[in-house]
Specification:
Blueprint: E1 4-12, H1 18-26, H2 34-39, E2 46-52, E3 56-62, H3 70-77, E4 82-88, H4 95-106, E5 112-117, H5 124-138, E6 148-150, H6 159-171, E7 183-185, E8 188-192, E9 196-202, E10 207-209, E11 213-217, E12 221-230, E13 233-234, E14 237-239, E15 243-248, E16 261-263, E17 269-280, E18 288-289, E19 293-298, E20 301-309, E21 314-315, E22 322-334, E23 339-344, E24 349-358, H7 368-379, H8 382-393, E25 396-397, H9 398-405, H10 409-416, E26 421-424, E27 428-431, H11 432-452, E28 459-460, H12 461-466, H13 474-486, E29 490-493, E30 496-499, H14 508-523, H15 531-538, H16 542-554, E31 558-560, E32 566-568, H17 569-582, E33 586-588, H18 589-596, H19 600-612, E34 616-619, E35 622-625
Parallel strand pairs: 1-3, 1-4, 4-5, 5-6
Antiparallel strand pairs: 2-3, 7-16, 8-9, 9-15, 10-14, 11-12, 11-16, 12-13, 12-15, 17-22, 17-24, 18-21, 19-20, 19-23, 20-22, 23-24, 25-27, 26-27, 28-30, 29-30, 31-32, 33-35, 34-35
Helix pairs in contact: 11-13, 14-15, 18-19
């Protein structure tokens, strides 16, 4: 079974015991900062490992509860799979609890557990009253049917019970997409002495491995993942759902900030104009007006902008979804389906939240026509839905496409006839765009290889596809290589793949010395010196010797008899012809020595080479020419 990775969050009002509960569950104090210790308040996000076995790994984010730290709270919750809502038994639901509930709803968190904390401070009768109060407040939220657990972090009451409940719940839950392109919204940037810049965050989707080339977006900075840590332990890879710290090269701490996104693909869109569907909170204190300044929280980014309506000029109360647009002051990286929160910058207030319909918004006219268009875009045309499913999964059979797009088979079949979709292996569909992108990546990899290894026939196919296999199905990669060969882009010799136009050759800087080596070898005929002597005389370094010998053998310019001796290709061919003409259908070593006038030092390796090449076959003391 493939291991799954999850991150859970602790949410709730300030001083309701989130950090204490995290510590009781994990034995980790997530209040790291001096100010947090002094003020006994969580300012930054705190992280800790909760549980791990062969099936599952669970991490905890302790989210700050104070209203001034709402930005950090949103940054933490945006990447989690389950929320534990902590409500103190001696206080019940507070204003901050309600705001957290709204934020969780807008961010699409679907799984929750309610922890009633500090139960040792009140009697059982009061706890029942608190339960009724909480149930009333949770109606219509993700926590409406959530299980309740009574806990006390100091006495450890209920700690094992809530831990077991978290583990059981997540074992029944699907993890995030680990096969898509890697994306990690950055929530912390720092430097480690002797190591350089480190970024940290929750892996939203995909997988990252040591040595992988990545980009910091929207800045477009290319970096390399030098080292990866998961909860302070070195790891070769980090997967969707894990908290990861990545030591990156080629960039300073000052060039990155929270809100930037670390990605592995160019397919993500950088934008300042986003078409969205939003809902507003039930108890707005102030009217939301047309083109009003807003603060967008998406992933770990916080960006100023304006909200643009196309069917109204203000909102005071609204229960239904509103289709509108956000025009931002700074670029963000996002894609369809991403969740976000909207806040009023002054006076500060959570307005609402929603999801991205289209990250590539345009300017539209005010009126119902625009709302109709946004409505169609929200649902997504059949073609858009197929494209989105294939972009995420890379390759799917028809049965799986039916599930993922909610389209009937006839509609799907009709749409899949479009040239932007490709059927391969007779059963799997993919995007022409993806094929072109992968083909280009393979082309670039081969071109770079040929520049540095000009004497090799190409790259072993398994090695060529090794990195790509982390992100794309192997049958798709095999198809693209075969298709590239059919279209004259690639060629294959045995297991080695190369560009179709590539011809193996000696590097220009060593061509003259190689010619000198071959000329000397040819001049000496069949009574040659040790092969290493020819390399030394020609001034060819030992580091180049193996590749050059392999190349000259592949091109039939050199025939190695054994580890010590080799003949020039022409001289070897001439010797074989002389021996064939000077002997009958079969011959012995003595016969060969008479024809070629060679000592046993050369004769035995030469005849063994003929055997190895299938030119002759040895039977006891004789050799037979093979037809």
């Amino acid at each position: 079974m493939e291991k799954r990775y999850f991150t859970i969050g602790m949410a709730g009002h300030i001083d309701h015991g989130k950090t204490s509960l995290t510590k009781a569950l994990t034995n980790v104090d997530t209040d790291r900062l001096k100010e947090e210790k002094e003020r006994q308040i969580s300012i930054e996000l705190g992280f800790a490992p909760l549980y791990e076995d062969q099936e599952i790994q669970i991490s905890v984010i302790d989210v700050p509860g104070h209203e001034r730290f709402i930005r950090q709270m949103i940054a933490g919750v945006a990447g989690i799979d389950l929320v534990v809502l902590v409500v103190a038994a001696d206080e019940g639901v507070m204003p901050q609890t309600k705001e957290h509930l709204d934020i969780l709803k807008f961010l699409g968190v679907k799984t929750g557990i309610v922890a009633i904390s500090k139960i040792d401070r009140v009697d059982e009768e009061f706890i029942e009253l608190v339960k009724d109060d909480i149930l009333g407040e949770l109606t219509g939220t993700v926590f409406e049917d959530a299980p309740f657990v009574l806990v006390d972090s100091l006495s450890k009451k209920g700690i094992e019970e809530i831990k077991d409940l978290i583990i059981r719940t997540l074992k029944d839950q699907e993890m995030r997409d680990a096969k898509g392109a890697f994306r990690l919204p950055i929530d912390q940037v720092f430097t480690v002495k002797g190591q350089g810049t480190v970024v940290r965050g929750t892996v939203y989707e995909g997988t990252v491995e040591e040595g992988q080339v990545l980009k910091i977006m929207p800045r477009g900075l290319e970096v390399r993942a030098r080292q990866i840590q998961v909860h302070h332990h070195p790891a070769e890879k980090a997967y969707a759902g894990q908290r990861a710290a990545i030591n990156i090269s080629n960039v300073s701490k000052e060039e990155i900030e929270r809100g930037d996104v670390l990605v592995s693909s160019e397919h993500f869109i950088v934008t300042k104009t986003v078409d969205v569907a939003i809902r507003v909170v039930a108890d707005l204190e102030h009217i939301v007006k047309q083109r009003m300044p807003i603060k967008l929280h998406i992933g770990t980014a916080e960006v100023m902008g304006r909200i643009v309506f196309f069917d109204r000029n203000e909102i005071k109360e609204e229960n239904s979804e509103i289709l509108c647009q956000l025009r931002l002051e700074e670029e963000i990286l996002t894609k369809r389906g991403d969740r976000f929160i909207l806040r009023r910058p002054s006076p500060q207030e959570t307005i609402g939240g929603g999801w991205v319909i289209d990250p590539r918004g345009n300017k539209y006219r005010f009126g119902n026509q625009t709302i109709d268009e946004l409505g169609k875009k929200k649902v997504g045309t059949p073609r858009e839905r197929i494209s989105a499913a294939l972009m995420e999964a890379k390759s799917l059979p028809l049965t799986e496409l039916i599930k993922r797009t909610a389209l009937d088979e006839s509609t799907l079949t009709e749409q899949l006839a479009n040239k932007e979709f490709v059927l391969y292996n007779g059963k799997e569909y993919t995007l022409k765009l993806l094929i072109e992108s992968i083909e280009e990546a393979i082309f670039d990899q081969l071109q770079e290889f040929h520049l540095t290894h000009s004497m090799k026939a190409g790259i072993n196919k398994a090695e060529l596809l090794q990195t790509l296999q982390e992100r794309f199905p192997k049958p798709l990669l095999d198809f693209i290589v075969e298709d590239g060969m059919t279209n004259g882009i690639f060629k294959r010799k045995e297991q080695f793949v190369s560009l179709a136009a590539f011809v193996p050759h000696v590097p220009k800087s060593w061509a003259k010395r190689t010619d000198n080596l071959l000329n000397e070898l040819k001049k000496d005929g069949l009574k040659v010196r040790y092969l290493k002597d020819y390399f030394e005389a020609a001034g060819i370094p030992a580091g180049l010797e193996y590749d050059l010998k392999k190349f000259l053998e592949d091109q039939s310019m050199l025939v190695q008899l054994d580890d010590q001796f080799a003949y020039h290709g022409d001289r070897f061919k001439e010797a074989v012809e002389r021996l064939q003409n000077g002997t009958g259908a079969e011959f012995e070593v003595g016969d060969a020595k008479d024809v070629l006038e060679l000592s046993r030092k050369y004769m035995i390796p030469f005849l063994e080479r003929l055997d190895a090449m299938g030119i002759t076959k040895r039977v006891e003391n004789k050799r037979i020419w093979k037809k």
